[in-house]
Amino acid sequence: MVATALRQVVRPRGYRRFLNKLFCYVSRSLTCLLYNPKLFLMRKLARIEFMRQVWGTLTACTICPKTLNESAPLPTSLVTPPNPKTISAVLRQQGIYAGLQLSDVVVAELVDFAHQTPFAVDRNPNIRCLFKDRATLEASLGYSFQLGSVNTQGCAAVQALIYDPGLVEIATEYLGAKPTAIGSELLWSFPGESTWKQQIKGAQVFHYDIDDYRSLKFFFYLTDVDERNGPHVCIQKTHWGKKLGHQLMGQRCASLKDHTLVETYGAEQVLTVCGQAGLGIVEDTFCFHKGNRPVSRPRLMLQIQYALNDYGDIRAYA
Ligand SMILES: O=C(O)CCC(=O)C(=O)O
Ligand SMILES: [Fe+2]
What we know:
- The protein is α+β, with helices and mostly antiparallel strands and about 325 residues long.
- The chain folds into two domains: about 1-35; about 40-305, Jelly Rolls, CATH 2.60.120.620.
- It contains twelve helices and twelve strands.
- Helix 2 (about 15-35) packs across helix 3 (about 35-45) and helix 5 packs across helix 9 (about 165-175).
- The chain is globular.
- Bound molecules: 2-oxoglutaric acid and fe (ii) ion.
- Fe (ii) ion binds near residues 203 and 289.
- Fe (ii) ion binds next to loops.
């Protein structure tokens, strides 16, 4: 009601847009505070590097060493090379390491699952579609899809990877405590036009994730990726040392122009990761990063995420 009243009183378009945005931001924050106060607090604190340093250390010290469900540990890693200490050292310095490799067999199993399981169109759980039916459903709905999110729960290969000793060791080494697996997603990114708003929602502009005081994401390409097929792009070394303004803005940094961030942190730090299906990236997603929208063919990618704490649905209230 207050918002409606404000909208009627404030006439100029710029103000109205500003008030609208402010209203959305405040109402999202309040909802988060009400339903998930721990997540709210972490999102506000972790963006400030000093707080992240302090809380990260405190949390890591208090973590029970058996946080990760170890019910199905594998004897050997499905990922090469699992050299946790080296990878962790590169991560600390660069914020990203792009040299992991999944075997062809595992890639084939994941791709098969993604083809046989309906995806949630643009992450909307109410619209589901099989990969082979995409063109037909797009035509009948009258728009082209940007993303397709496949639920990984029934996929044995994903579950095996979540508890893969190689991945877990890298995460443990980097996070400084036993990690918690907080999410996984098989994600299609489709070629096509999109508005700036859609690109922000689809993580296709530079942004950083605030998922915990310390967190880590693994990305595995399941289709071949070149410059035109949705490469993952990272501004290296931005996991620490962000400008104070960018720390205060948190996830709202996504509304800044990509070129502004590149100019601020240096074009020489921009790493565009191209590679064949099976290539794995591990990244501290406090770095500015994005997945470019493919131009020619769909990209399929698996994400697995570890952190110190699990706050529930990390994509909610963002
Ligand atoms: O699609 C990508 O390469 C990046 C995805 C991402 O950054 C995210 O989901 O937060
Ligand atoms: Fe992200």
